[in-house]
Amino acid sequence: MTLYGYAGRILRLDLTARRALAVDTARYRSWGGGHGLGAALFWDFCRDKTITDGRDPANVCIVATSPLNATPVPSAGGRCEVLGVGFGMYPFSWFTRSGFGGRFSTMLKQAGFDAIVIEGRASSPVWVDIRNRKVVFHDADGLWGTDTWTAQQRIWRMVGAPCDVRSGWWDLNATAEEALDPATDQGRTTQRPAVLCIGPAGENQTAAGCLIHDAGNGAGQGGFGAVWGAKNLKAISVVGTGEIPVADPKALLRARQVTKDKYVTDIRQPDFATWAHVGGLPTPLFMNPPPTDERRPQACQGCINGCRARFAVGYGNESTCQETAWYLPAVRRVARSVQELSEINLRAADVVQKYGHNSFLFQTGLHWLEHLHEEGLLGPGKAIASELPWDSYGTLEFAEKLIHALSHRQDIGADLADGWVQAAIKWGREEDLRNGHMQFSYWGMPEHGYDPRAELEWGYGSILGDRDINEHCFNIIFTHVTAAFAYAKPMRIQAQQLVELIAEKLSPYAVGRPEVLDFGDGNMYSEAVAQLVRWHRHYTRFYKQSALFCDLKWPDFYNTNVPDLRGATASDDAGEQVFWNAVTGDELTFEDGIELGRRIWNLDNAIWTLQGRHRDMVVYAPYVYETRYTKGELFPFFMWPCRDSSGEWQYRDIMGRSMDRGGFEEFKTIFYRLEGWDVDSGWPTRATLEGLGLAEVADTLEAAGRLGKEAS
Amino acid sequence: MVLTAPMDLDTARRVLGRLPHSQRFPVGRFVPPVGLLGSFVRGLPELQLALRPEDRSLPGVNMVRLADWVETEIGDPVLAAEVRNTALAAPSYVEACIAVHGLLVERLEAARTVVGTEAGRE
Amino acid sequence: MAARNTDDSRGMSRRRFVASMAATGCAVAAGSGVLLADGRFVIPNAEGFLVVDMKKCQACGTCMMACSLAHSGSSSYSKSRIQILQDSFVDWPDDVFIAQCRQCQNAPCVEVCPTGANHVDREHGNVRRVNPDLCIGCKMCIQACPFTPARLQWDKGPRKSQKCDLCVDTPYLDEKGGPDGVQACVRVCPVNAIAFTRVMPSQTLDDGSYSANLRDWVWKRMGMTTE
Q1: Does any CB of chain A come closer than 8 Å to the CB of residue B65?
Q2: Pair A473, A345 in one domain
Q3: Structural domain includes residue B49
Q4: Which of A1, A87, C114, C227 has the fewest CB atoms within 10 Å, i.e. is most exposed?
């Protein structure tokens, strides 16, 4: 039977024995793809689910695609999910996830695999060469110790890939006989291998180690670079010439065209200020001024409007968003011209890409380090010894030395490598987590900029899960409204209409309940907001992390390109479920996808429970309770729809408050109850798990003495 | 023009100077649609760089607190008053940022003139 | 073991000359063209061409996936009749190359076909296309293409050649394709980096004549060069 949308096999890499095995995807079909598929694989293949350090050889790391990869589903064709127990979080490294874009998932599918399960540990550094279904382990001599860009280009040469963009077809057959035999013909491609690899930050098993693909696609959070480094895995290279069957190609192409024609602004006569998620122009998200106009937008495979760029200037290619943000505040204080600002900043982005270093930890971490230095606590001969050239803070030289040290466990990197909060405690700086100098809000991760005291669903989703969520589903509200307010422009959509448009799509928990979006003081710990958080967790677990619709484009709740302002999400003509069904042949409703997300989310919680999670651990860093999110820390206002005392909706500034400890505890109880979890522990119950077809999971939790009690 | 009226050397040096870390002022950056970055400045020259107009992003400055900081930490009440008035009069936050940036450019230029003149005398 | 590169030299051996004369005979017999007294093989010009702006392309590969789907119902880069090549580690504008079929005026791929599978489709604007029912998989058309990468593809499943037909034979498109219809790649491109034209570009062998500047005032307003 054809598994439409799937390649049909899952690759198991046993690094210990250096052998490759295959598993039929059909066994895991019900989990969809991406995170769902990966969590189910983790459950089956990770024998010890109690580990809390991702460097443990028992850890299993999964790289998972979706049926939508390698198809032109808008902004879903090229994403890829990574799962496993992470490293560097606090107090535990949870079973966690990350994602990246580019070409890897499309190529892996065309090579014939839906996912890769990485098990064990190689005795010495290796890289894995996948060409269609041929899998070869190689010693990583000549690669280990190199940066990610050098490693990828060396691998291209080693496998004999075309040398430049004007090369000819690459015949993957080893011999003429192989090419002539229909049973063995490997086919031809013009594409280079897609390589996923680690750099020095991962090789040295630091908390910042991440996975890099091409110049600027990265799986950042979770410390998966350290996981690979601990497994002695340098890189996986994949090239394929296969094809992905699609159940209804006409419907797919039709829905893609509808997306472009109806939901995306017309690039010939665009609305430059559209309020939409999927509907804007290609917008490279580098945070500095453009270094040149000689550039193109660059996109992941299948994206409908790319978020990266490639330039003519010799630096900054494919870096976008976070890696162009981490050093910008420092550079801004020293750069004497706009050109210098952009160049230093983008070259600093190149540095983190090449080292395979997750720059997100610097989001608030770099300010903290600077604060320690300026307070006389960190530096040569200080309590926290550091020989880094702090006097040149803001220069490219400093950035290079900082990243080198932290990637090689040198200088302050020796302590930061095992986790930043751990380092703060070791350095006797726990008070910085109380006073707000170190804004690491949850699980040893920095606050994202969308403070948990203001943007509730972001903070709640992060603390109730395993990491900073990095999910902009509702955050787009803040962006649209705050930017319009800053320019004193008319709001494209007034508050009441906005929340009603969104609430139409919050099926099944909050449909028609716009109050779930009221982030006013009086609603912070309410059942309504809890329903929003539930919807958010379940939507993202399926549609964004399993089906792999890109976070930067989906969901599309409201859309000013459409006369009635209704966005593409859940729509009958170009909704997420329309694309899923066109590719797979399923007949999912939008709500079916939410329910699948609930199932996956519960499996995640079961794994966390086995790892040792308890509701008593689910608390923010102290500063979130003990200080206020005051005006001007990041931006002078944080606009969000709220109801006033008469029930009228307005856009209000929700800065200036803290999170109440007791209120948050009440919120947790409400959330756990709604999720069907034991309110005392946060553990899933048998009834909930069996209702999701996860009886076996309930058995495992019970045997471990960690099954949640049913509500009385 | 108030800002370019002669200022004493002491004020000029404070205008051009750099404060201790403990007296820093928070200035963020909003890069729609996804960037909200924190930072701070320790003096008016840094603040001028932070407020430099850019097409694709906005500085994050609380103007009321900025005026207070200029008055109490930098010690330039003349500039502080202009910042308050300018921010109040601006039709939007963005125009306030642009206008305050202009004030800074003038004030820093004036300060450099004063310091340069004094250096010449010495 | 190293993989082989299939781009042979363009020189004409005696054996190939004899084979090509036979092929030309087939092409003439199939009604594709006319063999002139001086030995030139002449076919009617195509009535449609694709031009591309390689400085504009966002290298998302959507055109490749759409092309493959529209023609075959499955998604595969190897089966796409337009190829996007890119290198992350090379600067703009040399980081992207678009290899589209040119619907050549003299179409060597048509001339060499021994069965007439690769022919001029007079019912559809003289598009040069491969009839899969007649193709015997000899790959001579792929070898005859003077461009690198060759603008014909080897479909290893049915073991036949294929090429761009301007979407004449696209059973998975709602709309009619061909020179009088839509082309999947043109329509799906998010940045409109591919255009259809009825004007035959100059038949030089360089990229220039099939490249077009499709960047306009919108591109400039987005902060990117239109040069």
Answers
A1: yes
A2: no
A3: yes
A4: A1
Q: What is the CATH number of the domain that holds A695?
A: 1.10.599
Q: State the nearest Cα–Cα gap between C64 and chain A, in angstroms.
A: 9
Full set of structural domains in chain C with CATH? 14-221 (3.30.70.20)
- A449 at the B interface (CB within 8 A)? yes
Q: Are residues A349 and A461 in the same domain?
A: no
Asked if the structure places residue B101 within a domain, the reply is yes
Rounded to an integer, what distance in angstroms lies between the CA atom of residue A97 and that of residue A87? 11
Q: What is the pLDDT of residues A654-666, one digit of tens each?
A: 988 999 999 999 9
Identify the DSSP state of A290: P
Chains that touch C (3 or more CB pairs under 8 A): A
How far lies A74's CA from each of A4, A206, A560, in Å? 18, 35, 18
In a domain, A584, yes or no: no
A81 and A186 together in one domain: yes
B18/A contact by beta carbon, under 8 A: no
Alpha-carbon distances, residue C192 vs A10, A260, A296, C223 (angstroms): 36, 11, 13, 17
What element of type H or E holds C218? helix C217-221
**Two structure tokens written together for A174:** 């080893």
Q: Which domain holds residue B23?
A: 9-121
ipTM at complex level: 0.96
Closest CA to C121 of C35, C182, C48, C32: C32
**Domain assignment of residue B2, yes or no:** no
The domain boundary, picked from A197, A218, A239, lies at A239
Contact A170 C3 (CB under 8 A): yes
Q: How far apart are CA C104 and CA A114, in angstroms?
A: 39
**Of C74, C85, C225, Cβ closest to residue A293:** C225
CB contacts, 8 Å: B36 with chain A: 448-450, 634-635
Nearest residue in chain B measured CA to CA from A478: B33
Chain C residue numbers with beta carbons less than 8 Å from the beta carbon of A214 are 88
Residue B82 is assigned to a structural domain of this protein = yes
A450 in contact with B, Cβ within 8 Å: yes
Return the residue in A308, A332, A552 with the most chain B beta carbons within 10 A, the one to mutate for interface testing: A332
Residue B21: the pLDDT is: 87
Q: Are A282 and C191 within 8 A, CB to CB?
A: yes
Query: Which CATH number belongs to the domain containing residue A24 in this structure?
Result: 3.60.9.10
As for how many domains chain B has, the answer is: 1
pLDDT score recorded for residue C4: 34
Domain match, A328 and A359 both? yes
Are B30 and A482 in contact (CB < 8 Å)?
Answer: yes
Is A384 inside a domain boundary? yes
Total domains in chain A come to 3
pLDDT at position A566 over 60: yes
For A:7-36, CB contacts with B below 8 A are none
Q: Are residues A161 and A235 in the same domain?
A: yes
Task: Say whether both A182 and A322 belong to one domain.
Answer: no
Q: Chain A closest CA to C16's CA: distance in Å?
A: 20
Of B40, B49, B94, the CB nearest to A335: B49
Q: Does B62 touch chain A (CB under 8 A)?
A: yes
Residues A414 and A460 in one domain: no
Q: Are strands B28-31 and B35-37 parallel, antiparallel or unpaired?
A: antiparallel
Range of the domain at A44: 9-239
C-alpha–C-alpha distance, residues A555 and A276, integer Å: 9
Q: Are residues A367 and A431 in the same domain?
A: yes
CA distance A608 to A615: 11
At residue A317, does pLDDT exceed 80? yes
Which residue among A285, A290, A635 sits closest to B36, beta carbon to beta carbon? A635
How much is the average pLDDT of A630-659? 89
**Chain C residue whose CA is closest to A278:** C190
CA gap B70, B54 in Å, rounded: 23
